[in-house]
Amino acid sequence: MAVMAGAEIRRHGSQMEITWLIDPSNLALAMLIDEAGSTRVAVNLNPTFRWIRNPFSVLKKLFRVKRAFRKLNPDLILLVQGGITNGFDGALAARLAGIPVCSYIPLAQSPLQLGRNLPRLRTAFVAIFFRAIGRYITIDREQETSLRSWQPHAEIAVVENFLPGPIASAPRRPDAKEHIGIPRELTVLAVIGRIHFWQKAQDWLLKALGEGAFLEDKALIFAGDGPDSGELSRLIAKSPRRAHLFQLGWRAEMDSLYEAVDLLLIPSRLEGVPLVMLEALARRIPVVASDRDGMKSWLPAEWRFPFGDGAAMQKAINRALGGRADDHWEAIERRLEIAKDEHRFGVEFGSALAAFSARAAHRE
User: Is 126 part of any domain?
Assistant: First the structure.
């Protein structure tokens, strides 16, 4: 998303110059940056866990990155983070170099969402990370609220995601379900994305839907891979409803899969604004999701359920499949038109960066 924003900023003649500092092993990102016509520089950052395993090596690299930052001498460093601990070395190096830093973060877990193993100690460390930055671009108001729970006085800009196109709802092929090995008479519920039980809750979903008669006339498919893919296979093999469960793995081509899907399920513990949700909605596929994060702001209440409540989820699925939803679709489609506007995304992103940079320079 950040690379798309940078390309759009350049396309419209902005005076802003952008140099991307990336890990040299990230070839896919390098290709995207090159296609956008932007400048890139290789910089080696470290996963957070290496601070524990080899702190002296990390410190050595940290000061090397600091020197690279000083050599470039930018007005602002934008740290693109999946979560606050990803690439945090960059924020430390920027502070050591005396250069203002901003984070583009799509997922800002609140303290309550974060709590699991050693919650107090973990929360204390994460709070330090959030407070060390102080400027954020995030993707919706739910994430802004989470950020303020960590850093009440942070400068925060909300720039809603851009939905790459073209995506349009189209008549479905009659044999779309059979094409992926599912009888056409079954209603297809799909979970699409990384197989990661703690965040995405696929294991809980199997238990909630795999017992009883709910799946009698339905198929539940999992498309994606991840660290818990093997365990998911084992759980499916042991399920009494295994004939209605399908694990498809990761797919590069998604159109044929979406053609077979009647409803998308997102039972996650936490998300940002899932791209898969926007892709499904753009195809007029109803989405039932846990009442959290971006799902809360995008989906009607009838399509949401409290995280971990299996009975409420089943009711939401029945409502989404059986009820009239014309009013819901009108509101969703108006919002999707905004999400599809690449120019809007680039302008808002560039304005946020310019404002952060100007305020930082004024303080100096």
Answer: yes
